[in-house]
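Supplementary notes for students who missed Thursday's class. We covered one full example, reproduced here. Read the sequence, then the structure, then the short commentary at the end.
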Amino acid sequence: MTQQNQSDSNEFPKILELDFSIGGWSSKKRLTLEGNEVNVFPPARFGWPEAVITHSPSDEEWLEFSKSLKRLDVANWNRSYMDPHILDGTQWSLRVKTETSEIETGGSNAYPEYFNGLILAINRLIKEDYFTQGYFIPV
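Structure (token representation):
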């Protein structure tokens, strides 16, 4: 069995780093790419970390995720989205690095127009409706 390595096409280079987090101070969820595996870190309960959930997306699933990032124009999102009228709430961050580009964006209680599309793309990548719970932004 060969190791999955994310199809390296000319249009969609291999994702080398992926880090996404969303939540408040006590309920932050996080996803990271380590090698060819995507790790999902649930929020800690009462100070104790929950078990990490590991996913191994196929090359086709990585290609669909890359297409979604392009379709959502994530590369052109602002570096920061802030709502100065809310002092607590939900913070989020996204970092995607490929051989040819790097995206770093995030915010606090404010989101880009197609943020829901990012949440859906991440959920499809991990085959779980994990990040929608409580974070799907009404349009």
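Commentary. The two ends are 44 Å apart (CA to CA). Residues 22 and 81 are 13 Å apart (CA to CA). If anything here is unclear, bring it to office hours.
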